[in-house]
Amino acid sequence: APWIWKGILEKEKIIAFLDFGISRHLKYGKGEIYAIYVLPEYQRCGAGTLLMSQAIEQLQQKNLSPYIVITLENNIPAQKFYESIGFNFSDKILAHIGESDYTENVYVKSP
Question: Which positions of the chain have pLDDT values less than 70?
Answer without folding.
Answer: 1-5
